[in-house]
User: Fold these one by one.
Assistant:
Number 1:
Amino acid sequence: MKYLDEYRDPGAAQLLLDEIRRISSRCWTLMEVCGGQTHSLLRHGIAAELQGTVELIHGPGCPVCVTDQAAIDFACQLAQKEDVVLTSFGDMLRVPGSRGSLLDAQTAGANIRIVYSPLDAVELARTHPEKQFVFFAVGFETTAPATALAIKQAGRYQLENFSFIVSHVRVQPAMESLVQAPDHRVQAFLAAGHVCTVMGFESYEPFVKRYQLPVVVTGFEPLDLLEGILACVKQLEANEARLENRYARTVRSTGNLAAQDLVQEIYQVCDSEWRGFGMIPEGGLELRPEWQNFDARMRFTEPALRVIDLDECRSFEVMTGHIKPPECPHFGKSCNPESPLGAPMVSSEGACAAYYRYDVTAS
Amino acid sequence: MTDARTKPKNSGKSLKMMPDKEKNEFASWQVNCPVSVTANADCVTLAHGEGGRLSRKLIQDRIIHSLKNEFLIAMNDAAHLPEIQGPLALTTDSFVVSPLFFPGGDIGSLSVFGTVNDLAVSGAKPLWITLSLIIEEGLPLVVLDRILESIACAAQETGVKIVAGDTKVVPRGAADGLFINTTGVGELIKPIPPGPQTLQEKDELIVSGPIGRHGIAILTVREELAMEPVPQSDCGSLIRPVKRLREELGDQIRCLRDATRGGVAAVMHEWAEACGLTLSLDERSIPVSPEVRGVCELLGLDPLHVANEGTMLIAVKQGAGAAAVEVLQSLAETAEPRLIGTVNPRGIAPVTVRRTLGPEQPLDDPLGSPLPRIC
């Protein structure tokens, strides 16, 4: 299949693997930021092939994994209301809040509908005025423009039966907060290719200068990832710290300006609570005051639930690279995809789920 | 990446997946139904299920009229069936697919092929099936006729007779248009494939065609994903391929199974559990159509977990795989068979798969329905 098979060619991958091994004078520690990259690294066996040459720390870039438990609890609470239909992307459904997941709520009678685009949710609301529709908007800068478009569309239709739980997060502040921790181990970053497609990568220049860490914009297929890793290792071996784009077939330095304008128009940056990380300054997006009539928290005056913090999940240590998923005492025992303790075991992008599915040693 | 494209939609989606106690205004027959249904079309009413004149009329004029054979025409409380020689195989299955019509089939043909295929892969020659219809009040009669016609065609194609049946009508909202149960009886033909518990090391695993077609066809139409070309279900009969395989390979066959819900992965796990060995698959040799692969890549699904309705897995003794592939290749229903793996001593996991580059990895048993990923 075009655009897939040529980036999964085993022969070309082997050459890149050999080159990475050849030039590495020591074992380097890289962080891939995005969960899609984590998944691909394990699915295609790259992490295992590079053992001893490159250690990969699986970063915080799985949006459902970092969604605040309070947001999930609120979504469940609304879904259980008579006449409310909660719409969501599919992989959010199994993620446990502090009082169960959306799937649990659905079993208990809540009205929940998976959508593939926020615009589908707008369409549902438009054609079913007798019900209140809520879209659970999670995701990084990649999904934020689609939600923004849906909000504008809802505004155009003057929908009074549609609102959003906005839980969008921003990737760069999370990277900042990671490297500001005194015990961080990251020597270079594979930046998330899809986020850069939308946001561009110019904003990484000051980051690279300030922290003196190589940042390489990287894609998701095996050859993309190996190219990104090779570029990082070359810089590290030469004692350089530069910004590089190794996903040029999709990513431009300025990104997608139309999408950025849309994000600017609808949201403003806010501090945000990340599951496993705590409060990240400027780590999220919220609706601008002029769009707040679409904020579900304004529309529904539900009493705020206290988050029951039973979090035995050690996802923070996983996402900061202090432990690998199999090193968690709960991994594969009290925590598995059927009964996850935390979000990284749920999502197809989550690091623990990726190890559970693909890692030979873990099973 | 694929020729699958998303087109703008022109209508609101149905709410059929939601538990809605109110009027079911978006019944699943409205989606993709090949017959045009006018606003004042005659519909099935609760009275059609009450056992009186309307019931008799529905059964006589529509069901028996469509499916007629000597057993049904007798209208006895139970079908009187002729004696047969060998031992019997018996299977039952219920069909609740939504929407009722999908690219490549409908609930009617599915309910015949599903049961007939279960008999065939168990080593039986399908003979008779029963047909129970649970109809939601309000189903247009033309839609029912269309489905009965499809059932009649599938029965004729597979050479089975529908010998008994039942019809119930439930109030709106208590069903989703139409549910069907079929029970099938077949005559076991020797040598009967001995089953997955007899699998041995070095046995060979074959798939009869491209995988995941039914699941992706249903997902695409149910969620109105507007892909082009529209993925088609593989809904169809496996009688002829099974018969030919058994004629040509005889006792070289260990077991056969149609890979329905849970897809190839679920069957592989059941077989691995039965024999205690590891079933090792090679992803590169597993046939997946561009349409299915495109949707799976977009949504983060694994084709190995996606349902089929006319595609089977076959395990044969060492060395017989190529012959099995050759037999299947010569038939229109199974034109793209592949040898996809082997049976090995129990290793890292009950079922493993070798993907693009790296080592053998565990293949997980599907858990619930696959959930599409966010980005």
Note: The two ends of chain A are 31 Å apart (CA to CA).
Number 2:
Amino acid sequence: MAFVKMKIRLLFFLWLTAGIGIAGAQQRVKQAPTRPFELSGIVRDSLTGEFINNAAIRINFDKSGLYTDSTGTFTIMLSEADYTLVISRLGYRPHRLKFRLDQNIHLDVKLLNVAKELEEVVISTQAVDENVARPLLGVTQLNIKTIRRLPAILGEVDVLRSLQMLPGVTSVGEASNGVNIRGGAVDQNLILLDDAPIFNPTHLFGLFSVFPPDAVSSMELYKGTSPARFGGRAAAVLDISMANPSLDKFKLQGGISFVANRLTAEIPLVKEKVGLLITGRGAFNDFAFQWGPQKLKNIRASFGDAAAKLFWRINDKNTFSLSNYYSTDFFQTDLLGGINNINSVSTQYDYNTLNFTARWFHAFNDRLNVQTTAVFSQYRPTILLPELNSDNKVTIGSEILQRQAKTNFNYTPNKAHKIEFGANMTHYQLQPGTLNPGANDRVNPLRVPNEYGLELALHAEDEISINPKTTVSVGLRYSYFMALGPAAVRSYADGSPKSEASIIDSTFYGSGKPLQTYGGFEPRVGLRYTIDELSSVKLGYNLMRQYLQVVSNTTTPLPTSRWKMSDAHIRPQVSQLWTVGYFKNLKNNIYEFSVEAYYRATQNVLDFKPGADFLLQNYIETQVLQGRSKSYGLELMLTKKKGEMTGWVNYTYSRVFNLVDEGPRFNERINDGKWYPANFDRPHNVNMSFNFSENKYHSLSLTFTYGTGRPYTIPNGFVSFQGKAYPYYAERNQGRIKDYHRLDFSWQINNPTLKDKRWIGSWIFTVYNLYGRKNQYSVFLKTQGTAYTAYQLQIFASPIVSLAYNFKFM
Amino acid sequence: MFLPRAITFIILCLLWVSCVEVYEVNYHFNSDVITVDGFVTNGYGLTVTLKTARSEKATYYSVPLRNCEVEVRVGDGSVVKLAEYESGVYMAPATFNGQVGQTYQLHFRTPTGKVYESEKEQLRASPEIDKIYHKYNRDGILDRTGKRVAFSSLDVYVDFKDPANERNFYLWRWTDYEEQGLCATCEGGKLDSKTFICTPERNSRTIYDYRCDAPCWEIFYSNEITVFSDIYSNGRKVEAQQVAKIPFYSMGGGFANRAALVEIQQLSISPNAYEYYKLLRDQAQNTGNLTDTPPSAIIGNVRNIDDSTEEVVGYFGTAGVSKSRHFIDKRPYSNAYKYLMLGREPSLEPDSPPMPPLFESRPPLAPCVKSNTRTPTRPEGWLL
């Protein structure tokens, strides 16, 4: 402990002395004799040539700055010196340059296109009034740079963990396979990486998220009103874009951390025309477990992800991109839930994702453009059971195959309207499970029949400025889902629970024949009323339909959890969300304050029956119940956006309850058909994130998070049966684990040699869980004979120190 | 870079996998449920145990449900009345035997007038056990934290042929006979040599054990649930199915526990009974893992016919039974971690000095009294 303290002191000392040293150096630069010159320029849209007003010209990293006027021009007198200039505007890729001002200089700068459909932007600054002016509620644009500065566990920059610092985003704990957004289940989030869906967002059962950190350029989280172009999930949309490769310069960046190694290259293949981005990350240290304690000897773990993006700027009006993403995981542990008649001592999980996105953007003119996208997405989780004293592995495989085509038009006839419309077609093919015994002749091969589905959608949206104070966004989506044959659909006796015993008939539907259809309108409405220049009120209403979902009976869905399409028995989930918010910018937009309140009602949420088993189960309807969910919350957030210290503090009060009541029998209802808290109901949440960056060479970050412990089920009593004690559970989720809190720290040192070179290195020192809080992940009971004991499982229960090295070559 | 990464990954896994600690939960038990346990079998008669399981604050206990009118309704229309044989335990006449293919339904009325009924269950034949064998497992049973070896075990396996063309579900129970050398224990007193009752002695805190006066066997029963479904192996030969994990029982002290005689009962049960026992097993065997079975009410196939919301624990099932006995010579396994039958080493009353005739010499030998857990009758198949 004393050692750690000493270390921390030493770090602060180093930081302070480094800071003083750099400040001193700058003082000396300022004292050089100078002569004034004029620096002027004009900033234009690279595609349309239009002048860009209000573009920020930041000189020497915010030492001074100005904005372009309505003709896109700027002029400033500066003394003779070396300057670094960053020209940026929200929605544009910032333009950076470095020069010596020893004469009058006029710059002609073209910023890359506004339409994010053309080239994803690194949102380096939020427009000063962005928060106030946009009619959509609950939209958060996350800057990947902000995420990189947050302390990351074991030095791995993590998108999903960072999201949990935002109000309304929580999870069930350290090892959660996804996040819960405003009372939504993990599978109710549509997670897109370059338009391709991500079915399993984490590596190693929730420890790290799967998004390659160096290739992500922007992230938009829609937790309130989602644009009408998105659909298919009930709660929220996380739209992650991969960066477009540089078209003029070879760039290389990478990093080494305790866990994984990363490398990203941007290669211009044809200058200004074709570029390629390749990124890869891998962690393959599993042999290390062999030296671990007895209990870990059986554990092997490795993961990796890789992505590539080819970008072709055909001409000023057309671009084409092709992205590919691959992710793989392997995890072996002691036998978990084996299969009868297979002698195995370990279980292996092997799962991988393969996605392709092809995208063509065409601008008809500066008012109308269209983007057409084709997506191929494949997710294949496999459970392997290696047999004892044999090379044979019994495998239980499954697969999701999603193929999608969509087109989206953007039309801006005048300043009062921003119109978007399009169509979307998605074909799903699910292989729910195959059992392949390999060389084992004591097990029969088994194949659960494939499920097929087709989802069609049309959408249109218009952002209308009614008057200078009022803007509405009116969107409508119509989605239509067909569950397709071949399939056998059972009929069950009325009034009985759906089970093997209540089957009365079975109907077979041929290939391509719809066995059930669902559909309906999905209105998306947002209204913004500006009270004054700095504050506004927004209202939103959102309806979303979900036809594909996870059925799971674990705390967090496993990578191998079963995905199920809506069919003749499983009805689609329909979620309605009402939101209201107040936004205010304070003190020259240095601070931003917001309050948002929401209420969500979801129909047909799935919950599992007592003793449900989904593995290789053909008729899921016999294992699940459908009910309702309601959630509500209040989110307060204060952000400081500028200055040496930036960061935010937020508090969320939120509740989530489910009600499941399909009949009077105990296995047709949960908690006697009364409302009960969902697994991820955590009423109070506080997040704080502070970043201190005195200069570009180093920065310190501290984050703190607190959340009420999630519910778990405590037995209502014990029952002695056949000489052994069994817990007796009459209610679900009536207990709570201990509250969760944690403080993290990171110190980032950029370019420690302080020399401007093409090679820039940085070190990131991170302490996760600084004060070693023993947070509970779960509480569970074990019985032995007639005795019982409760245990707690803790994950990351002590400070985790790590050091990572990142580099950039450009 | 390799070494720190390796170490970190080990640390990571330590934190990830093994950070399991005992946790004090404030229980507020408040349940009061009826439990039903019974099987109609072909060959083992019919016994039904009825209890009320009560849990209050942090304790739980069972009260026999006495004076019920209990009957079993047979598919052919006949009714078998059960008589209360001991508190809460109801038995059919000794002449009763379950018939394969027949259905059985439990029906009982409590003294307070509540009427309960099970679902109808059909009795299915069980295939014969083809082969029974064991493996000595020195590290067989771990302590509750799962970190240290508690006892060695004798793991018993069976091979059998699963019948094709039908779904089959199996439940195994075992009975284990072990040599018992001590037939009485007195705490704070001594055994009377005539009545074989402990005579208390003032201010005595001694514990004395007394040797048996004849060969005696202790009987142990399974309390872990072992079930099997042929869903993935219908019609196949089932090999090396572990059906028992018997602790390496020993008297300790100078007593030799030379052998164990294990009887395996293979029960062919209904799909619903299988689901129930699987649920029961999973509820007791959570490991704190991500794949843990979620808590569920362990409610079986018995209902209050007037109140479908009343929750009744337990199952009334039917089972065809096939059994097989296996004799295990334990003498080669000298390095075993022993499970002491008394929970401690024996503590014999010291021998009295040599006495003249007419004076009794102590300690006396105790009789081996036949009960559920002890027998003086040499079990069939005992080879020593």
Note: Chain A touches chain B through 90 residues (CB under 8 Å).
